[in-house]
Amino acid sequence: MSCQLKNDHLIVDFAEQGFYQGKRFDWSGFITGVTLRQGNHSFCVPESLVPGLGTGGAGLCNEFGIADPIGYEDAEVGELFPKLGVGLLTRVDDEAYQFHKEYPVIPFQQEVKQEGSSKLCFTVMPEECRGYAVRLEKEIRLEDNRLIVDYKLHNEGSKPISTKEYNHNFLGIDQHGIGPGYTLKFPFELVPEVDEEGSMDSLLFQGSEVNWSGAQDSWFYFRLQGEAQAYHPQGWIWELYNHESQAGVREISTYPVDSIAVWGEKHVISPEIFIKLNVAPGESYSWSRIYEFFTK
């Protein structure tokens, strides 16, 4: 059964139970659609437009431990390790963890509670695994044109939890392909780190903005380092705007940013803002992501 939140400004759609069964993204609060009622603008797209390709991401879905899931390094081949928000995965070989690899999974149990038309609460139950046990609470609510995701991670095990979390933000405004109609903006001077130069030929870096000289015809990926904390005086981290639709979305969260990356394809732009989590046994940690959808 799928869920939906709505108020006078936004309609937010969630994936049905079983829609996503991958080993990468948090299964709880998997947002597949956001509609801004003023102008009927849409914002969420799938990771891949070709069924069966990619890792199954869509819309606003988060991931814990893209490179460092807790317990993987000290797990023997054949032993279990926890992938937060997903379940207990089995280490299959001596190689480093890879987010796109298939690992057998025992899913965590989840509870969902809806409180009115504009608030949903998700709880991922702890499952002890070699000293690791985490209860994850996620409250998703609407306030005017803002979508707010409140996280609370409780360490109920005997070992510390040290990992990173981010939201992949699979965005494409009104289904417009990625190109000159888009501007992605950060509140600091951009100095991108690029792995493959050829993938960036259409991107134009101008001060704090990313623009496009032509239609994006392949994937791209870059990282931003050194100025991640500079957004605090402005009160927002990033903003994506489509000039044809005259609609956009910005993240106005205030958690401590660990690092920033941007991934995209012909149809999707994903600003990825990472937070580092270190939670001792018996302690809890809370943070929030706040998205503001707007028209000009």
From TrEMBL:
Native organism: Paenibacillus motobuensis
InterPro entries, per the entry: Gal_mutarotase_sf_dom, GH-type_carb-bd
Top-level taxon of the source organism: Bacteria
Record protein name field: Uncharacterized protein
